[in-house]
Amino acid sequence: MNVKTQQMDGPTWGLLLILSILWGGSFYFAKIAVGEIPPMTMTFSRVVLAGAILGGISLWRGGNVVPSLPMFGGFFVLGVIGNALPMSIMFWGQKANGAGLASILNASAPIFTVFAAHYFTHDEKMTFPKVIGILIGFAGVITLIGPSVFKADHAILPEIAGLAAAALYGFTSIFGRRFTKWGAPAAQMAAGQLAFAGLALLPFVLFFDRPWELPTPHAPAILSMLCLTILSTAIAYLLFFRILVRAGATNVMLVTLLVPVTAVLLGVLLLGEKLELRSLGGMVLIGFGLMAIDGRVLKSLNQRFRQSA
Q1: Where would I find the H helices in the chain?
Q2: Domain span at residue 21?
Q3: Domain count, the chain
Q4: Is the pTM for the entire model greater than 0.85?
Q5: Residue 194 lies in a domain
Q6: Based on CB atoms within 10 Å of each CB, which residue in 66, 100, 184, 307 is the most buried?
């Protein structure tokens, strides 16, 4: 039986590219901010401030859905399982993993999403081109980062933490689809889950970090925190839910394959880093992987081959 699958059109690919730039930039903002702000306090500030911004946008736009008990339950699951928990364990794991290995572990999210979507959705079934495309893209991420990433001291628990965070991101993208059935706008969906993420983190921040005892961060850390909040969280979540509604959970998680590419390009453009041949090879592999997942190029080539045969 043929099952209809959700596809990516040109504008949606454009939104995915913008989202990858916003999340790729978050590595730079977080690197500056975390030097003066503890990771848990930084995560709490990020979700609370972004949630307040998105809540204001949601009220200003209107047309919100009156939250029901199941909707509040969905906000709780997405807030805790999709934000507070994966963000916290990703930060913890990154202390040992380093940014490169963390990017590779994070880029495994589409693999988890493909399997979850196959069993828990009716229109995002696993296909051979999709699986091959994700594996090619994942190989491209590893090529992009390079072999030096594996020279770090390998502690198994931080690596498991990175994979667990990626799995949570992948599975919660499937769970987030239920909000499309309730007709909730993107700003309301994002604000609701971020609010519950902040509530879940609050007692831990108060008990462990004691932010009132911390020194006041300097201007670069505060500016980076604002960029992380406004650009890489508030605006990024609006795009995330827009893509989720238009193209499905599997396609929106392709952004994790693009984030390392945009991070490398931002380093070249903003920090004057050198673009190595290995980086170009990794980008090419990721490009081939994305084309295989998209399917339109392969379908067009197949049609031309049949016509010429």
Answers
A1: 10-33, 39-61, 69-79, 85-106, 109-120, 128-145, 156-175, 178-182, 186-204, 219-229, 236-247, 249-252, 255-271, 277-294, 296-308
A2: 17-124+150-259
A3: 1
A4: no
A5: yes
A6: 184
